Amino acid sequence: MGELKNCPSCGNLFVHALRAVCPECHRVEEERFQKVYTHVRKSKHRQSTILEVTEATGVSEEDIFRYIREGRLNLAHLPNFSYPCEGCGEPIRELRLCRACSGRISSGLEEEAKQKQWEARQIKDTRATYRARE
Hints:
The protein is mostly helical. It has helices at 23-41, 50-57, 61-69, 99-127; strands at 3-6, 13-16, 83-84, 91-92.
């Protein structure tokens, strides 16, 4: 069963079950998506950039980026489409982060794991106590 929430788009009260927005906002959102989808399906518009599609349809770049991230628009047939990396904003065509940001995060995680191993060894070494015979 859903819970009552205010729609983040319009502020109206609705039962939050499957969607994050109210039915009216969802309908409007679907209409915007269909505008973009029908526009880029035409072969003459497949070479368009996101800016050109935004101007032609009136749908914001942020909405188009969201459609791509949600997997609703496939970039395989749209060679001039890209969206910003969530780390640095560089244009990318897949995943959520560019290679540089991904590498930076990976190296940071590796460094943290090494630090934890070193700290664990230090704790283990301080526990070993040697006593001389009396």
